[in-house]
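User: Could you go from structure to sequence for me? I need the amino acid at each position, not a summary. Structure tokens:
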């Protein structure tokens, strides 16, 4: 069923979490659209009070055959209906298009962000996430091909870089922007980035994929007390990383 957008939800208080452990979610939606379609979408953003939560960038190399060119549309919210409503409008009212070069990156801010960064630095936790992903999309080559692509390395935790920080004691989170789960997003945006989803060809697909990845990340993180994980980072290492100063204030 297609989600129905509720404008009041966008203007309402941003107090509730989007799930049990995840405070807010954002996405980077790669694709293309005509100039008039983009203007229509951004009028929708303004009319529904989403201007403070929305941004767009030019994303070169996507080669989506639309007049305005290649775009990366960004939106974050604490409310799933806001995210779903934006996707619904972009695809069905504004002609948003994607191709195999595009991705759908999801950013999540957990209640305890340092703890989440430590947890998702565990190779065994990442392996569990990838198993769940492979099982969910078994037989779907578009989704399975995303694992190990140039935009989503299948190693997630760059062991060489992690080993280096452990040896020299610099207490730095390594740069791993293109991993399945990119911990470097914490330094840049104060969240954890899940880069595994491929291009989404419809609003229905995008909303379903978004819901699945939120539910899965929340479930895996929620079971952390019963998971024997082998985190490479420690809380001290995360909190001492000076590049994070002020990120979450």
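Assistant: Here is the amino acid at each position, in order:
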């Amino acid at each position: 069923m297609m989600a129905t957008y509720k404008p009041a939800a966008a203007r309402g208080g941003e107090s509730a979490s989007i799930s049990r452990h995840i405070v807010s979610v954002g996405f980077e939606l790669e694709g293309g659209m005509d100039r008039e379609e983009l203007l229509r979408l951004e009028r929708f953003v303004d009319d529904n009070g989403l201007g403070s939560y929305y941004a767009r960038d030019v994303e070169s190399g996507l080669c989506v055959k639309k007049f305005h060119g290649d775009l990366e549309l960004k939106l974050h919210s604490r409310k799933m209906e806001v995210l779903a409503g934006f996707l619904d409008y972009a695809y069905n009212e504004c002609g948003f298009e994607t191709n195999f070069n595009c991705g759908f990156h999801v950013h999540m801010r957990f209640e305890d962000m340092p703890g989440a960064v430590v947890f998702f630095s565990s190779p065994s936790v990442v392996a569990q996430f990838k198993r769940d992903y492979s099982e969910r999309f078994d037989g779907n080559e578009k989704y399975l091909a995303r694992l190990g692509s140039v935009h989503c390395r299948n190693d997630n935790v760059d062991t060489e870089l992690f080993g280096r920080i452990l040896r020299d004691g610099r207490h730095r989170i390594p740069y791993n922007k293109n991993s399945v789960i990119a911990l470097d997003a914490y330094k840049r945006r104060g969240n954890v980035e899940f880069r595994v989803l491929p291009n989404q060809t419809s609003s229905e697909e995008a909303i379903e994929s978004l819901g699945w990845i939120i539910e899965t990340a929340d479930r895996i993180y929620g079971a952390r007390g019963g998971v024997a994980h082998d985190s490479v980072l420690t809380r001290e290492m995360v909190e001492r990383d000076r590049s994070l100063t002020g990120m979450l204030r």
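One structural detail worth keeping in mind: The two ends are 38 Å apart (CA to CA).
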